[in-house]
């Protein structure tokens, strides 16, 4: 019999570890997961660390850093790491940790559930089993496992509030799936790790995500600059349309002149922003706006936070956004 793979489970709270309290579901420590973990121990050598106990809506960039630092520090001696997490902000955490851990040398797999493990109909057991299988696969990178699908952490988006197919891999094939054949890995979708693993957790919280609406007051860009923001991600219309009339362009120009890095993505969940198609987009490119292309808003936001935290200037950040660090963007040939 082959030796069991050694897996570290880091718990952070979330629905998967919740029990009904006086004011609704409340996250608890890993003890509430013991029934499922007993079964998993038949297949894996599991060590558990309760890192925090939070509803994921309360997980902030400081917690992203704690998760990344713990993964990097504890990874030696393990074959893989599973992180249980609430679903509401898991895509943000998985994206941020992806950038904080360049060239990570083992599988790191985030997962959670839509129903607590204590519920007899919970989706948690399936999600945990898929996450542990991916963690034992030897595939380097940061992933998110949900509903028998494994996706890159920097491509995952929560698309359903209650359905079990809560996450989708946006503009990228799944890294792996679970079927009657077991865990089926798509090796072409795995991150291309180059170099030694690093811990680079410094990020800037002075980044704002702005959803464009018709008639938006362009003075908001002046307000964001006055508040000390260093980066803005704009969810624009369609391929990247922004209202350039009625002083809209002037506000973005001033923001860039003030040293703010402005990234434009699209409100459309699928496909890519392409500022070169329409006149309005070309006007933005002339100003020095950065294209988010087919990145998720979560990945664009966390990549910009990370890039500013690394001390990069506007030009360097623009160059960084043309590169794929971990599969977060489709690079044109």
Any overview of this molecule?
The protein is of the alpha/beta class and 333 residues long. 27% of the residues lie in helices and 24% in strands. The chain contains 9 helices and 16 strands. The protein has helices spanning 34-40, 61-74, 90-100, 124-135, 219-226, 248-257, 279-287, 297-309, 314-320; strands spanning 5-13, 18-21, 24-27, 44-54, 80-84, 107-111, 141-146, 149-152, 156-158, 167-169, 176-179, 182-185, 207-211, 231-236, 261-266, 290-291. The strands form 4 sheets. The protein has an 8-stranded mixed sheet with strand order 4-1-5-6-7-8-11-12, sandwiched between helices. Strands 13-14-15-16 form a 4-stranded parallel sheet, sandwiched between helices. Helix 2 (61-74) crosses helix 3, helix 3 runs parallel beside helix 8 (297-309) and helix 5 packs parallel to helix 6. The longest helix has 14 residues, at 61-74. The radius of gyration is 20 Å and the shape is globular. The model has no long low-confidence stretch (mean pLDDT 90).
Summarize the structure.
Helix content is about 25%, strand content about 25%.
Shape annotation: globular
What's the main sheet like?
8 strands, mixed
- Give me the count of strands: 16
Helix proportion: 25-40%
| Beta strand % | 15-25%
Describe the secondary-structure layout.
Elements: E1 5-13, E2 18-21, E3 24-27, H1 34-40, E4 44-54, H2 61-74, E5 80-84, H3 90-100, E6 107-111, H4 124-135, E7 141-146, E8 149-152, E9 156-158, E10 167-169, E11 176-179, E12 182-185, E13 207-211, H5 219-226, E14 231-236, H6 248-257, E15 261-266, H7 279-287, E16 290-291, H8 297-309, H9 314-320
Parallel strand pairs: 1-4, 1-5, 5-6, 6-7, 13-14, 14-15, 15-16
Antiparallel strand pairs: 2-3, 7-8, 8-11, 9-10, 11-12
Helix pairs in contact: 2-3, 3-8, 5-6
